[in-house]
Amino acid sequence: EAEVAQSPRYKITEKSQAVAFWCDPISGHATLYWYRQILGQGPELLVQFQDESVVDDSQLPKDRFSAERLKGVDSTLKIQPAELGDSAMYLCASSLTGYTDTQYFGPGTRLTVL
Amino acid sequence: EDQVTQSPEALRLQEGESSSLNCSYTVSGLRGLFWYRQDPGKGPEFLFTLYSAGEEKEKERLKATLTKKESFLHITAPKPEDSATYLCAVQGGSNYKLTFGKGTLLTVNP
Question: Which of A7, A42, A76, A108 is the most buried (most CB within 10 A)?
């Protein structure tokens, strides 16, 4: 069964350092999403890609966060510099076309900022 | 702005004790309501999509229903392996964005 892959699964870093997360969506899925989930809360959308284009990054803190999906397949989310408040689970999801298609989630990256 | 409220925040059941989880929502133009299951430290796992009031879907011990203002996830004769956080999300408006609730933490004791 096809799955969304993410790495690393866990990341511990010190504040002011740079971190990067990688996501490989289900093959053939045109839409890719990055979510942030704080403990005890539901996921919140950070950025949405349709192929290689950003279609929604309204909730992405652009002073420190960046995301790219250069060839319209895998994607990287970067934080520079990391702050204590960035500690959370970072989830990647993909869907076939991005309309009412189901979003399938990866296992997530648990980030701890010390 | 789309909003989703789930209740209760936590629910503890004995094995075999049926119950329901609630998801109340406000959205401009519902395109779909989604239920996910999330185990600790893992990503959400898709369960159901409901598109219109009156629709129902079932999977094993779970049954999801939808009205114009809320959705229920009914759990019949739960087992300990049903213990997880259940998340509800709505998709509406023009951007197809999912808005999630905070989830209900279900614990089923043997």
Answer: A108
A38-53 pLDDT tens trace: 999 999 999 999 999 9
Instruction: Name every chain A residue with its beta carbon within 8 A of the beta carbon of B4.
Output: 42
Six-digit token string for B32: 């779909």
Q: Which residue in the set A42, A100, A106 is minimally distant from B43, CB to CB? A: A106
- With an 8 Å Cβ cutoff, are A43 and B91 in contact? no
d(CA A17, CA B100): 30
For residue range B8-43, what is the model confidence (pLDDT) as tens digits? 999 999 999 999 999 999 998 899 999 999 999 999
Task: Show the CA angle centred on residue A86, arms to residues A97 and A4, nearest 5°.
Answer: 30
Q: Look at residue B97 in the predicted model and tell me its pLDDT.
A: 82
Q: Which residues of B touch A (CB under 8 A)?
A: 4, 31-32, 34, 36, 41-46, 49, 51, 87, 89, 91, 95-98, 100-103
d(CA B69, CA B59): 23
Beta bridge partners of B64: B57, B73
